[in-house]
Amino acid sequence: MQSETPEMVLSRAARRNFFANLIDVSFFAFGINMVSRYTVLPYFVGSINNNPLLLSLIPMLTQVGWLLPQLFTAPYIKTLPRRKPYVLLMTAIERIPFLVFGLLLLFGKDLPGSLMLSAFFIGYAIHTFFAGFTATAWQDMIARVIPGKRWGIFFGLSSAIGAVLGIFSAKVTDFVLESMSFPNNVGLLSLLCFVGLTISFSGLAATVEPAQPTQPREPMMPYLRSLPPLLKKDKGFRNYLITRTALSLSFLGHSFVTAGSMLRFDISLWLGTYLAAQLASQALSDVVMGTLADRWGHKQVLKLANLIGVLALVASVLAPSPEWLIGAYVLIGIATSGYQLSGYTLVMTFSTDDQRPTYIGLANTALAPVGFFGPLLLGALASRGGYNMLFLFSAVIGAIALALLQWWVPDVRRQEQATEQASQSASA
Fold first, then answer.
1. Half-sphere exposure of 318 (CA within 13 A, CB side)
2. Chain centroid to CA 135: how far?
3. How confident is the model at residue 151 (pLDDT cuts 50, 70, 90)?
4. Which of 93, 111, 165, 284 is 20 to 30 A from 409 (CA-CA)?
5. 331/183 Cα distance (integer angstroms)
6. Higher-confidence residue: 122 or 156?
């Protein structure tokens, strides 16, 4: 009896893989929203020390930990016949810090604030860096087990479900923050986060990924030396990386909205409402953005997300009261939806299948410098000129990124469609 080919296995398991990874992405979003980096984590750090430079460590670790390891894992990932075992190991370590941190805050509430902050930043660094070690392999695994024509609806639907679940987590966040004292409330939210991440892990473990042909492992130095010629040859991809750097710097401004608002208003009882508003708008826009991406193209969706992200920064500056800030978080949710969906997926349109891990790793690691220096720059701006200066700077950078997307970055999908139509016309 002839054995099944990888294509046959993937075709047979297509439905299972779609829903298994739907559980993974949805419940990961649900869990991580319990300790949202936009609301709960700034609240935790700011309640101990509201120094803008200290608060800037949250987005800095988020960006650098996620982005920096990816380029260096790509050569190893290409040698693996299956990505799943590596992903399971790395992402298991990624999730453990929230269990440890939650227990520490619940049972060590009398610890000095400096010790709590040190424990938090160490744990959060472990979480973000192991997320980075996971990222390239996970993205390539998804590209293998989910058909390319369903990427848009998969990411859109999974993000939407995660956001809907996140609305429930926002209500839980409100209840916990109001009914428990600090830092026990953040400790319980961390444990609830770990519960969501554990459910997410079960979906990931259920994925069916057959072994596929591997590529020989390339030594690191020759591999790194091959990257400049790749960027020189692929002008469109190079332009996209530069544009995405500006876009990422602009979106970092959203991470400071809570910290800036804490200096203007008493928002301690509004954090759950802000999170719910952000997640509800993200849930509604995720499916819409996913459908638009499949029909309209990821570049167009990214342009729309960019514009809305700039409007969110403007809204946060103009808000005259805590109630008006809800609108800013709604816009942040919509912008985040488009950015997460199309900012990463657009990378895959530039590469061939065999080069995909390299393109993914290079695209994400290229953002590491702005991920490291960007939050520090924005924190310094806030320290010297106030948060409004920070938001104005981020908005201007966003406007520049929008112009670059429009006139400098090619739309690979439309170019391929035009070539295909021209070929069909010629053959007719």
1. 8
2. 10
3. low
4. 284
5. 30
6. 122
By CB neighbour count within 10 A (0-12 exposed, 13-18 middle, 19+ buried), where does 297 fall? buried
Mean pLDDT value of segment 248-267: 83
Angle at 119 between CA 113 and CA 369, to 5 degrees: 110
Q: How far apart (Å, rounded) are the C-alpha atoms in residues 30 and 35?
A: 10
User: What is the rounded average pLDDT of the residues 401-416?
Assistant: 75
CATH class of 11-211+223-413: mainly alpha
Which is nearest to 404 in space by CA: 257, 254, 299? 299
Q: Show the tokens assigned to 351.
A: 């590469």
What is the Cα–Cα distance from 360 to 227, expressed in whole angstroms?
A: 12
The Cβ of residue 11 has, within 10 Å, a number of other Cβ atoms equal to 12
Tell me which residue of 59, 52, 54, 57 sits closest to 38, measured CA to CA: 59
Q: Which two tokens stand for residue 110?
A: 């009398």
What are 73-100's pLDDT values in tens digits? 877 887 878 888 888 999 999 999 999 9
In the chain, domain spans: 11-211+223-413
d(CA 378, CA 369): 14
Mean pLDDT, residues 259-274:
78
* Residue 33 identity: N
Residues 317, 267: contact at Cβ < 8 Å? no
C-alpha distances (whole Å) from 359 to each of 142, 170, 240, 280 are 15, 36, 12, 32
Question: What distances in angstroms separate CA 291 from CA 154, 306, 326, one per listed residue?
Answer: 10, 18, 26
Residue 134: left (phi > 0), alpha (psi -120 to 50), or beta?
alpha
What radius of gyration do the chain's Cα atoms show? 21
For the chain, the average pLDDT equals 81
Least Cα distance to 60 among 371, 340, 381, 394 occurs for: 371
Q: Global pTM?
A: 0.70
Nearest to 303 by CA among 225, 188, 400, 416: 400
pLDDT tens per residue, range 26-68: 888 888 888 888 778 888 888 888 787 788 888 888 878 887 7
Give me the mean pLDDT over the 359-381 stretch.
79
